[in-house]
Amino acid sequence: MNQLPLQKSVIARKIPNRIIRRLAIYTLCLPALTGSFSCGNSANEEAAQFFLRGNVQLQKREYREAIRYYTEAIDKKADFADAWHNRGLAKYRNGDREGALADYNKAIDTDPGFAAAYLNRADIWLESGHALRGLSDLRRIETVYTDSSFYQTRLGDTYVQLKNPGQAQAAYDKAIQLDSKNVEALTNRGALFFQQKAYEQARQDLDRALTLNPEQPEALNNKALLLANDGQYDKALLLVDKALAIRTGQPFYLNNKGYYLLMLNRAQEALPVLQEALRKDPQNAWAHRNLGIYYLQQQQADPAISSFTAAEKIDPSVDHLYGYSGKAWLLKNDRIRACTQWKRGVTAGDSMAAELAKIQCR
Q: Is residue 61 in a domain?
């Protein structure tokens, strides 16, 4: 029986590639910078010079240098909202999420109407699992970005995290209506369709995304999930390997690769891949479950049960978790515990557990 692949489809997330307000358009004496900015103020002029130097370094992807120049600008002019914002963006791209959040907060405190700062801060809220905070920021700037395909994509991502698929699809639909070549929106709507088991619609979106960008790793990974769902594990393996060549070591992709190898009866190749996925993300319930499948295939009941228990503690909704867990207990000749797991699976909507409970637990 073909099993649903063991890792949820992956939402594409672009690193924010925008400094939407006033990047690189300042002159040294631009009065529009803030109400108090004037050409006659040497501190303000010095702040503008440092800001412009920071912009140059940011565009060159020299993030440490950009941060240094923006810090100089802020030292000269503490209420320089744009410098706070751009320093936050540089920190974000340099991997400092907490520092970026602090700077975006300061930019918003300094200028409560700074729409780009709300948009970029929403990204961080979404990444850190605070979708309601992200939604609050996005709603605050809705009138500014309502016709932005990127904004609608991020709104869709937020609703996905909030488990509101109707609103998520509406946002993705609008994003694609605004820009039919928005690969991220196509990929993410495809992921949403996959989660809803609307596989043909998912395939259409993912194929469109890959036609536009054959190197989109999330689309490659999600198309692999569709192939695996049809039992085409060899083709799925080729695609997830391509995704891993683009995003080396991505734990979701590693986990999926491990699963496909297990389904292709290549267990010894799967083991180090699954171990690496868990090393990179110990809280990945799917990878714990897949490792349990490996041990089950090796007829090692105790480590299998341990892995399934770890998966259940993290996320009991992982597909077929109770079905496999019951099999591990049956391997120990403990039919009572096996049936207990399968009956729990019936309550949880685990189709494998329900089928096994019918056969084994009369």
A: yes
Q: What mean pLDDT, rounded, does the chain reach?
A: 89
Place of tokens 């391509």: 242
Report the alpha-carbon distance of residue 282 to residue 292 in Å, rounded: 14
**Structural element, H or E, at residue 226:** helix 217-229
**Which among 190, 163, 129, 178 has a CA at the least distance from the CA of 317?**
163
CATH number at residue 115: 1.25.40.10
Higher pLDDT, 164 or 3: 164
Residue among 138, 173, 267 nearest 130 (CA): 138
Q: Which domain holds residue 107?
A: 45-146
Judged on CB neighbours under 10 Å (0-12, 13-18, 19+), 300 is middle
- pLDDT tens digits for range 257-295: 999 999 999 999 999 999 999 999 999 999 999 999 999
End-to-end CA distance of the chain: 22
* Dihedral over Cα of 326, 328, 331, 333: its sign: negative
CA distance 259 to 238: 13
Are the C-beta atoms of residues 154 and 126 closer than 8 Å to each other? yes
Cα(119)–Cα(16) distance, integer angstroms: 9
Residue 39 in any domain: the answer is: no
Q: How far apart are CA 99 and CA 309, in angstroms?
A: 36
Question: CB-based contacts of 112: which residues, under 8 Å, 6+ apart?
Answer: none
Cα torsion 131, 132, 136, 137 to 10°: value is -20
